[in-house]
Amino acid sequence: MIELLEGRFIKTFIVVMEEKSFSRAADKLGYVQSTVTTHIQLLEQVCKQKLFHRLSRGVKPTAAGEKLLKYAYQFVQLGATIEDAMNEMEQPRGTVYLRMQESFFLTRFSSFMQHFGKEYPEVKLRISSGFHQDILDQVLEHAIDFGILPRDPKRNDIVFYPLVEEKLIFIASNTLMMDVETEGVSRLNKEILISFGTICLYHTHASKALKEAGIQVKDAIELPSLEMIKQSVACGIGFALVPEVAVQHELDAGTFKVLPLCPESYSMHGLIVHKNRELSHPARLVKSELIKPSALITRM
After folding, report:
1. Which of 14, 82, 227, 271: CA 20 to 30 A from 45?
2. In this structure, how many other beta carbons lie within 10 angstroms of the beta carbon of residue 94?
3. Considering the chain, what percentage of its residues have pLDDT values greater than 70?
4. Is the N-terminal amide bond of 61 cis, ω within 30° of 0?
5. Element (H or E) spanning 241, and its range?
6. pLDDT tens digit string along 99-120?
């Protein structure tokens, strides 16, 4: 089979899988749609399997297509690794893919990214945001080089490198805090928990801490960004569990107050990589720089 495979076919296959559409894949790749169709047909001939169900709107992968995806990512990675190996004697260059929570990028990673870019200008960092399970899935599928998670997934096929411990705090507006001081923490039974949703470990952590404190909030709302959560808390819509570093400016300015819920909570963020992933030279540089003790100290 190997002599019949072409990198173009594999790349087209991956983009069709991600876009779930031949036409959108063609737009992304800069091809006409007939070229995408030809690439997939030739790949199906090589694999001797149908890879997609053609639907009225887009496509859906067959079982064979789902199975091929993991190997397609590995195929592309191998090509990048070979290219990197040929370039190691020169200025490091290449692309490294990482996925992490938005709040971690804003509070920790953006400053690291600036520093790394100055040291290695030919290495491009491609960042995407997500939450625990989809970050883990992307690493397991070899779709990205690294993920950054708020806790160790404790899997035999994943290597976890501790990076930084975050203190988690419940924040509230000044008005809500005054009510809590007057009525006690039971006042929170009438309030709304604001979070990224149940897919986020912070939400799970908050729910557990509230249950242990005997608090059952009346409702919860899900917001897509840290800034929206902060603005909603400031407006008095509810309260939230967030990393302390993410709201340090607001705490210093008196915009938020820390709710008196004990015990203190912490989350150990770490870098994860598939144990069988052959890291490129640029990826090894990112890893070595990230795991340095001072790499992710915030510059407030």
Report:
1. 82
2. 19
3. 95
4. no
5. strand 239-243
6. 999 999 999 999 999 999 999 9
Does residue 138 contact residue 273 with C-beta atoms inside 8 Å? no
- d(Cα 179, Cα 35) in Å, to the nearest integer? 64
Enter the DSSP assignment of 163: E
Written as six digits, the tokens of 2 are 């190997």
Can you tell me whether residue 214 is helix, strand or coil?
A: coil
Angle, helix 33-47 to helix 7-19, in steps of 10 degrees? 110
For the record, the structure tokens of 236 come out as 């008095």
271 φ/ψ angles, rounded to the nearest 5 degrees:
-85, 130
Give dist(CA 113, CA 124) in Å, integer. Answer: 10
Calpha distance 103→90 (Å, rounded):
35
d(CA 202, CA 42) in angstroms, rounded, equals 46
Contact status, residue 269 vs residue 150, Cβ threshold 8 Å: yes
Looking at 30-151, list the stretches that DSSP marks H as alpha helix, in order from N- to C-terminal side: 33-47, 63-87, 102-104, 110-119, 132-140
CA dihedral in degrees (224, 171, 298, 283; nearest 10)?
A: -40
Residue 292, by phi and psi: left (phi above 0), alpha (psi -120 to 50) or beta?
A: beta
Nearest residue to 185 (alpha-carbon basis) of 194, 176, 195? 176
- Tell whether the torsion through CA atoms of 292, 294, 297 and 300 is positive or negative: negative
Q: Could you tell me which residues are beta bridge partners of residue 242? A: 169
pLDDT (tens digit per residue) in 149-186: 999 999 999 999 999 999 999 999 999 999 999 999 99
